[in-house]
Specification:
Structural class: mainly alpha
Distance between the termini: 86 Å
Number of helices: 11
Shape: flat
Strand order of the largest sheet: 1-2
Radius of gyration: 31 Å
Number of strands: 4
Order of helices and strands: HEHHHHHEHHEEHHH
Helix content: 55-70%
């Protein structure tokens, strides 16, 4: 037989859970250590660089013809003194350090581009680790502090994001997971059990984002109609203008706060919405036209 046939425990069980639900596959960034490593390498390279240039000046000042050609022909540097040259040795050491530094710099940059987990994802992982039927607090000593309560930006989530992550979508996801999950039969309908022992349920992010998109579409299509209805009730022209300005401001604020739209897109959508209100007010002032 191949693979594990026995009951998984500890890290083996956690790895299986993360494989089933990437939403809780959260890992520490170790930002401080990464930055400290970069700073250390940077300082070391700076020192090696100055040492290398000092060696170049010493070779130039020796007056030996073969060493004066080093800055102009690398082949001479490689063949110098039957394979031995202080300048070449220092350059080789410097090259390896720069390579190590650049690799870590690029890795850190890519790491910073990864998304931080949602608060609900971290909370679900912590609850599972403390659940007697789940992780049962298997983490010991310093490892028990890996997923301590800290800012979510201290961690990265390796799951692939499906759809936009604007505030409205995040609110919809929170509502579905935190409210409907506990007080309705939603888990049995659209949820997927990823741990039978604890009953942990995972929701497909694409479905959550789709629900947010539908909700936003319905609200955005009914909001102009609702504003026209209010303007129809208000008979005073000055009050209508004030109400129209208020609705336009609310519309723009919602777009700016709860969507990922760019400024020019917000401006265009708000101008279009305001134009609809202006047309209605104009038609109300000239009912016979």
């Amino acid at each position: 037989m191949t693979g594990y046939s026995h009951k998984k425990e500890g890290y083996h069980k956690l790895a299986t859970l993360m494989k089933r639900d990437h939403g809780i596959a959260n890992f520490r960034r170790f930002d401080c250590i990464n930055m400290l490593s970069l700073l250390s390498l940077q300082a070391e390279i700076q020192e090696l660089q100055e040492d290398f240039w000092d060696q170049c000046r010493r070779d130039r000042d020796t007056g030996l013809p073969e060493k004066k050609t080093y800055p102009f022909w690398f082949q001479d540097l490689r063949r110098a003194e039957e394979g031995f040259s202080a300048q070449r040795q220092k350059l080789d050491v410097l090259r390896e350090k720069v390579k190590e530094y650049n690799e870590l710099l690029l890795q850190t940059s890519r790491l910073n581009s990864l998304n931080a987990p949602e608060a609900s994802q971290l909370e679900a992982l912590r609850e599972w680790l403390g659940d007697p039927r789940g992780g049962a607090n298997f983490l010991k000593q310093s490892e028990s502090r890996i997923w301590e309560d800290e800012d979510g930006f201290s961690f990265v989530n390796v799951g692939k994001i499906k759809g936009e992550r604007d505030m409205f979508t995040k609110f919809t996801s929170w509502f579905v997971i935190s409210v409907l999950h506990r007080y309705s039969c939603l888990p049995r309908i659209v949820g997927r059990v990823v741990d039978a022992e604890t009953g942990m349920v995972s929701y497909d992010e694409s479905k959550l984002f789709h629900a947010g998109t539908i909700t936003a579409t319905v609200l955005s299509s009914t909001f102009p109609v609702f504003s026209i209805f209010i303007l129809f009730i208000v008979k005073n022209t000055y009050c209508r203008i004030g109400v129209a300005a208020g609705f336009t401001a609310i519309f723009a604020i919602f777009l700016a706060c709860f969507s990922s739209a760019k400024r020019v897109e917000i401006f265009a959508a708000t101008a279009t919405f305001a134009a609809v209100e202006v047309v209605f007010i104009g038609s109300a002032l000239n009912p016979g036209s």
